[in-house]
Amino acid sequence: MPQRYDAIVIGGGHNGLISAAYLARAGLRTVVLEQRHVLGGAAVTEEIFPGYRFSVFSYVVSLLRPEIIRELDLPRHGLDILPLDGTFTPLHAGEGRPAPIGPDGRKIGTGDYLWRVNDHGRTVRELRRWSKLDAEAYEEYGQLMVDMARFIKPILSIVPPDPASNDPRPLLPLGGLLRSFQKLTERQQAVFVQLMTMSAFDFLSQWFETDPLKATMSASGIIGTYQGIKSPGTAYVLLHHYMGEIDGAFRAWGIPKGGTGGISEAIGRAAVANGAEIRMEAAVVNIRTRGGRATGVVLESGEELEADAVLSSLDVRRTFLDLLEPGTVEPSFEEEVRRFKFRGSSGKVNLALDALPTFTSLPEPGEHLRGAISISPSTADMERAYDDAKYGHWSRKPYVDVIIPTLVDPSMAPPGKHVMSCFVQYAPYHLAEGLGTWDDNREAFGDAVVNRIAEFAPDLPSKILHRNVQTPLDIERTTGLSEGNIFQGELSLEQLFFSRPVPGYARFRTPIRDLWLCGSATHPGGGIMGANGRIAAMELLASRRRGPGRPV
């Protein structure tokens, strides 16, 4: 007889683990089925080279919802987030301004730099070195973005309504949002509309004139999208990343101790402590259905498991096109799934270093290396990087977001050594005809990333001991994320809220009764957020309380 559970969760990424933790806490016999030998999906830590541990894919955290940390008591299960202090943007000499002069009257390095830190006063003083107008605008901009984040934050916890439904009850939470919108000032309302419609570049240009500042700040608007900083809609993605908070501080980012796998492991321990079972190397190859409802799964080993409910934390393509038998869902629904845009556009390069690199614009090792290092010297460079991707080529001079985790968490490498994490835009999943495959381009892409950073830190290549290049195809092969999209689908405006992932099915339910979605392909989107997994579990539990035949 097949083993039976109340709930089966497909995929041991952070959202799947969060769903399992809440379901198990409510008393449901729950099992998580993870295909790999390591827990976490894209939020994993692995020792790729002996002694060097990497956050191989996802690498920073900010969006993880505070209520999840509190309700699952994740610190008790080992969660420890170490704050990142600021963003350092190295520049070439002559980019914007000449090299800065130190207190002793000598030039500092051979280039300039922009450095924003968590200390607001220090950042304002740094911006004043570039532009008095920008220093003054930074105060207004920061406050408005915090206001927008506070306004939009409740959306992260609600279930999107179905606008075509005749049942008005799911629309009730929107009433509170409308009342909150009406309480905003006219200026705040206008800014919200702009965030929903404008490009990151145009939005930021309303406040700032310093080009490297606009380039660095607009980078948050393109993360995980196949769009450029001047593409309409990227201002919302900028806000999406601004909503992250650590200890109540919006726009705060950190590194989990032990890498992003530390988050997944803490959630996994919380799930097990609440009674969930986690099975590794248990790949699901089929979701069983009978009479229009999900009844269980079949594993790669041939083993069958039965359940009252199945939750998939995989993306919609994997769930509906790969795991269900053909013809299980209506052709119209399947066509909507096929239209859902993934368009993976990012890659990752992980480096093991013999020593810290030297950035010529600020050569002495210091606290500027303890935060993010943004290779985004100008808005023209950012847009040219996108130009390459538009025509199916990886960016020859890409935008790179660099983190050196060992400066915050030395346990990630042997004493005196370092690891460097390089998130890269753009790396289009679909390469232009004539370029060959990603297997053909992997090392050339890795070279382009290293060479780009070396423009600002020339000694970097000589300090590399090992290199691991992750193309979108590699990300797809390893994690199962279709086209390597880190958000399980683009965060474009037409794929948000009640249209995510499919219009009419944004309430975590699917056309198959008792088959639920709980991954980043659902509202409110991607990032190590966890809201998706939590809401899906809460909705499933609420439907059980209502009983069969009651509205959901």
Fold topology:
Layout: E1 3-10, H1 14-25, E2 30-33, E3 45-49, E4 52-55, H2 66-71, E5 81-83, E6 87-90, E7 113-116, H3 120-130, H4 132-152, H5 172-183, H6 186-197, H7 200-205, H8 211-218, H9 234-242, E8 245-246, E9 249-250, E10 254-256, H10 261-273, E11 277-279, E12 284-290, E13 293-299, E14 304-312, H11 316-322, H12 331-339, E15 346-353, E16 372-375, H13 379-390, E17 399-403, E18 418-425, H14 438-454, E19 464-470, H15 472-479, E20 515-517, H16 531-546
Helix pairs in contact: 1-10, 1-16, 3-4, 6-9, 8-13
Helix content: 25-40%
CATH class category of the largest domain: Alpha Beta
Radius of gyration of CA atoms, rounded to a whole number: 23 Å
CATH topology of the largest domain: FAD/NAD(P)-binding domain
How would you describe the shape? globular
For the terminal residues, how far apart are their CA atoms? 32 Å
> What's the count of strands?
20
Main beta sheet strand tally, sense and closure:
7 strands, mixed
Proportion of residues in β-strands: 15-25%
- Domain count: 3
Q: What assembly state would you assign to the polypeptide chains in this entry?
A: single chain
Low-confidence stretches: 98-110
Provide the structure class: alpha/beta
CATH architecture of the largest domain: 3-Layer(bba) Sandwich
CATH superfamily of the largest domain: FAD/NAD(P)-binding domain
- Average residue-wise pLDDT: 91
Number of helices: 16
